[in-house]
Amino acid sequence: MNIGTRKILDRSFTAVGIGSIIVMALALMVVVVPIVSNGIGAVFFTGTVEHRKMLRNEFQRGDTQHLASEVASSERYRARVYEILGTFEKELEGMEPALKRQYTSKYAQTRTAIQALLGPLPGDTTPMLTRFKYGQTRWEKAEEKLHDLLYESKWDNSNSEIMGKEYFVSRSNAFKGTSLAPLFPYMKSNIEKMLLPEFTVYWGFITDSSVDSHFFGGIWPEIQGTFFLAMGAMLFAFPLGVIAAVYFTEYARPGFLNSMLRSANSTLAGVPSIVFGMFGLAFFINTLKVSESKSVLAGSLTLAIMILPTIIRAAEEAILAVPKTYREASLSLGSTKWNTIATVILPAALPGILTGGVISLGRAAGETAPIIFTAAVSVGSAIGLADVFSSPTPALSWNIYNLASEHEAAAQLRHVQYGMVFALVTIVLLLNLSAIVLRARISKKMKG
Amino acid sequence: MITSESFTEKKATRDIYLPPERKTVDGGGESHVVAKDFSIYYGEFEAVKKVSADILSRYVTAIIGPSGCGKSTFLRAINRMNDLIPSCRTSGSLLFDGEDVYGKYTDEVLLRKKVGMVFQKPNPFPKSIFDNIAYGPRLHGMSDKKKLMEIVERSLKKAAIWDEVCDRLDKNALGLSGGQQQRLCVARTLAVEPEVLLLDEPTSALDPKATAKIEDLIQELRGSYTIMIVTHNMQQASRVSDSTMFFYEGVLVEHAATAQLFTNPKDPMTEDYITGRFS
Lengths: 448, 279
Ligand SMILES: Nc1ncnc2c1ncn2[C@@H]1O[C@H](COP(=O)(O)OP(=O)(O)OP(=O)(O)O)[C@@H](O)[C@H]1O
Ligand SMILES: [Mg+2]
Description:
The structure holds two protein chains of two kinds.
Chain A: H1 3-41, E1 44-47, H2 49-59, H3 64-93, H4 97-118, H5 139-150, E2 151-156, E3 165-170, H6 171-174, H7 183-195, E4 198-201, H8 204-207, H9 220-251, H10 256-269, H11 273-287, H12 296-320, H13 324-332, H14 337-366, H15 369-372, H16 396-406, H17 414-447
Antiparallel strand pairs in A: 1-4, 2-3
Chain B: H1 7-17, E1 31-42, E2 45-56, E3 60-64, H2 71-78, E4 88-96, E5 99-100, H3 108-114, E6 115-118, H4 129-139, H5 145-158, H6 162-165, H7 178-191, E7 196-200, H8 208-221, E8 226-230, H9 234-240, E9 243-248, E10 251-257, H10 258-263, H11 268-274
Parallel strand pairs in B: 3-8, 3-9, 6-7, 7-8
Antiparallel strand pairs in B: 1-2, 1-4, 4-5, 9-10
Adenosine-5'-triphosphate is lined by residues 42, 45, 47, 65, 67-73, 85 of chain B.
């Protein structure tokens, strides 16, 4: 091959390499940017007076006096709304039946839209669910709800060939000539004064426990649950995995049984996690009865079984990578095999073993399927350390899924979902980062 | 120890090995390691063939021979480092202090404590210099800090490396130069206070200056330790050793006092090898 071709080849390989890195970086951006921006939105956002009321009532947080004056000023503007509603309700009573029927349902829709914005109206019975006790707590949601109030959404199905098209009809037109008509322009121009939006930093999103199934955030039980589950899994899997790896590399005699065990281990590493979930339910809960039903213990054990093969493999590789000369040196000084493993081989293999461990820890924290049947519940309060043997727990991975697909108000809670995703990604990234740092420090210490 | 009926035989062979000027050395000169029809196999391959030899205590024995002739294999058999190779097995007898090295009840860990080894490539642990030297003594139950420090200092001094490392004992041993690492390994072996020192080409990776230091060290240890040294360097063998063994294709061709082997070899093959006429 002549120099020209060689150079061209070199260059094109470089270009392909750089290209693939750029593609990877872009893909990462597409995933990470929305997670970060929306996730941050769960903590930093423009909150309304309803948010502050909620904090006061549910968590006894905030300045009571300031809140009282805020509520008073907001009520001054809301009073006019109540007044219009009252007047119209009287007008409705006096209408002739046909007209009354026509307006009643429309009025009910309008009233519901106002409740969504401002919370319960005077004369309403106190709602059972906390989510209905307050109006919109986030300003951007309030703007959406205002739109819902001002315009009725309708669907144009005239053309059956294509899907129906949404279009909006102004509600104020529908009430033209009635005493309700002034409500709409009034709401539009005074909504800020009624809700008092201001920039809010809500750390409680992370540290609070959940109120009314995550309606207002509060993901601490999930974070704690994830921590317990992952740590529990490590507690079982790490020592066991390292011991197994030592056995495979140092003690096992080559032979049929040994190669069977090894290939079983490799196969286990590739088994889908849902299978581990079913196994955990069948084995740990139904057969061994480690707990009555779902519990952190059962979940941890299941996760431990899932990550065990990875830990074993990582540890095996790390042990095999220890130079043979260390072993020779130690043995030649009159060390026993066990002592050599404990004082020379394992310390030298430690960076690799730890890396495998932390990667597995990240995986245990992130997996959903293994804990569905063994440990996770969608709603619950943070559990204490003493409860891990008997209580199930909410956990980030499961609750992200639950909130995004099974929660009855999934569409309204996007910010909470993103907040949870962001928290989980941050936890896993921090774990990996700590693995890198730890590894670097230990290797540096060993290289002198 | 050595049984009495073989003693006269021993005395006769011993005279062959002794260099004239050392016949009067105090102590030593006893049979320390004795091989009899000793063979070593890697699987089917016989790497060392029916070797019979008598290695005397507190003398320096050099092992020379072309590459692949089984020098390392023989040396590693003495402290059973070959146990690490699954396919390796032995036949015949090898005695250390009159006891069968490959006996059923031999404690190889205890054996290795008495028969120390320095490898061809320096192999310090990835630990501090202090911990490297203290590794052996700690292993054998020494935990007193002050005593450990004494041992470390004494061993490093014996290995002629104390001056170079005394101010950085807590630094990682892998930061030392190759020659320093090799002397560190010698010191590490000495710290265990073995009776026999096996050196497998200890200077092959070293520059002349470091080589000279190791050779000086051997001279110094001579008379207190039984030393066996594998080397490809004829001058080195003649400088440091009392007796020399010449291996060829697994066979011990000749074993004689060093001065005699290099000036007046009995076997023509030995002569060819030491004069470099070997092909
Ligand atoms: N682990 C092993 N498995 C199989 N054969 C081996 C092994 N180690 C060494 N041998 C073979 O045994 C023979 C002797 O090897 P040995 O290492 O003892 O030679 P040597 O004399 O030390 O050579 P050198 O001077 O190159 O170090 C060689 O033919 C070698 O190929
Ligand atoms: Mg060799």
